[in-house]
Amino acid sequence: MKNLGSVLTAYMIGWGVFFVYFVTVAQRTSALRKEVERLKASLTRGK
Amino acid sequence: MLKVLSAVAVVLLLGASAYGAFFIAPNEATMGIVQRIFYLHAPCGMTALAAFLLCFVGNLGFLFQRKAKWDWLAVSSAEVGLAFCTVVLLTGPIWAKPAWGVYWAWDARLTSTLVLWLLYVSYLILRTMVEDADRRALISAFYGMFIFLDVPLVYGSIWWWRTQHPQPVVFSSGGLNPVMRKIFDLSWLSLTALMILLIRQRYELEAARGEAQTLAQEVETA
Predict the structure, then answer these.
(1) φ, ψ (nearest 5 deg) of residue B32
(2) 3-state DSSP of B168-186
(3) Which tens digit of pLDDT belongs to each residue from B13-72?
(4) Which end of chain A is more exposed for a tag (fewer CB within 10 A), N or C?
(5) Helix segments in chain B, DSSP class H
(6) A7 and B37 in contact by Cβ < 8 A?
(7) Who has greater pLDDT, A33 or B159?
(8) Which residues from A are below 8 Å from B36, CB to CB?
């Protein structure tokens, strides 16, 4: 079981990078969709 | 609904490949348990190169058609490829220390991979420096095609130069034990599925950004 810690660290880091990236992209997309809805509403009000 | 199902499928595939890597794969004779990093490290490297190839296709598509969707594909693939390349650069040293006795060696494969990572970071930085969307897409398309030249260099470095990095076992006959081969293929499949999921998610972000910019201009002129 020598070096098991290294294997676990590598997998945790790998999955961590992907998870953080996925969450960041989802948050940025959600914020932009809200912005799109706000702009659409302000255009409708303008008409 | 389809998005949720595809995300669940990717998570299940990743779980299955991790189970295979930890509990089914046999121990490698010389390196022992630490060789199991191979099932994450090597497929991540191959997936990163595939994402950069998609970025190249996006850049080429934009130069021919001048349509924003190609630029969105290029930037999405570059960012996702960079995430995979980051994992390669982080897991490599963790494997190298017990296997080679050092975290890093300035050999051709490692150095060209680090250069590749830096080049795609610079690609993303360059995009933040140009305000106009069409100009940004055009400049980054040219730059993206230029930096793609490092991809074949990374791929061929282990054949062209003497390196500390092991010779490829994936595409060579008799290189991998059949069980190891199956687990490697499953890992590669699951990480490719993850790449597609992330690129699609990132593409949606870029499309929403494009729509927001168009609407903002309409609001200003209204």
Answers:
(1) 75, -145
(2) CCCCCCCCCCHHHHHHHHH
(3) 999 999 999 999 998 878 888 889 999 999 999 999 999 999 999 999 999 999 999 999
(4) C
(5) 2-19, 38-65, 68-100, 108-128, 133-147, 150-160, 178-221
(6) yes
(7) A33
(8) 7
Q: Region of B105 please: left (phi>0), alpha (psi -120 to 50) or beta.
A: beta
Q: What is the pLDDT of residue A45?
A: 82
pLDDT of residue B69: 96
Contact B118, B82 (CB under 8 A): no
Distance from CA of A35 to the nearest CA of B (A): 7
Q: Are the C-beta atoms of B188 and B4 separated by less than 8 Å?
A: no
Can you state the angle between helices B178-221 and B38-65, rounded to 10 degrees? 40
How far apart are the C-alpha atoms of B133 and B24, rounded to whole Å? 50
Contacts of A6 in chain B (CB under 8 A): 34, 37, 94-95, 97-98
Chain A residues with at least one Cβ partner in B under 8 Å: 1-4, 6-7, 9-11, 13-15, 17-18, 21-22, 25-26, 28-29, 32-33, 35-36, 39-40, 42-43, 46-47
Residues of A in contact with B18 (CB under 8 A): 11
Q: How confident is the model at residue B164 (pLDDT cuts 50, 70, 90)?
A: confident
Distance CA B19, CA A30 (A): 33
Residue spans of alpha helices (H) in B101-177: 108-128, 133-147, 150-160
Q: Shortest CB distance from B34 goes to which of A3, A14, A40? A: A3
pLDDT at position B53: 97
ipTM value of the model? 0.91
DSSP bridge pairs for B28: B32
